[in-house]
Amino acid sequence: MPDAAPPDATFEQARAMWAADAASAALGMRLVEIGPGEARVSMVVRPDMVNGHDLCHGGLIASLADSAFALACNSRGPVTVAAGFEVDFLEPARRGQVLDAHAREVALRGRSGLYDVTVRVEGTVVAEFRGRSRSLAPRT
């Protein structure tokens, strides 16, 4: 049986995906760390990210969680996309605060995966996100 590819080679595929992610870059997201089935991404809440209540727009919190989810589910190599997600907002985030999203693999069965992402500000949980992934069949 041939040796499996070293983890760094797999992470390079996820990092290449991240480097081409214009949406995450435009929002100022930063890759903090990546490991097998997990990733951490951070983002500063800018003035153009707040809603009419002067709080971080929920869609942007969900976008941060989705980006961490994408990195975690692509960390194992196969091209993987979101099949869906749900998010619960628990606390508000405000301009100038740094959001930290930590994605963790919960289950991986065949081509389907389940991931939890916790978004925090200074240790306080702001949102909980659950994502469902699907690995794409290799192109022939």
TrEMBL record:
Domain of life: Bacteria
Keyword Hydrolase: yes
SUPFAM superfamilies: Thioesterase/thiol ester dehydrase-isomerase
Pfam families per record: 4HBT
Keyword line: Hydrolase
InterPro entries in the cross-refs: Acyl-CoA_thioesterase_PaaI (IPR052723), HotDog_dom_sf (IPR029069), PaaD (IPR011973), PAAI_dom (IPR003736), Thioestr_dom (IPR006683)
Record domain Thioesterase: where: 55-126
CDD domains xref list: PaaI_thioesterase
PANTHER family per record: ACYL-COENZYME A THIOESTERASE PAAI (PTHR42856:SF1)
Protein name: Hydroxyphenylacetyl-CoA thioesterase PaaI
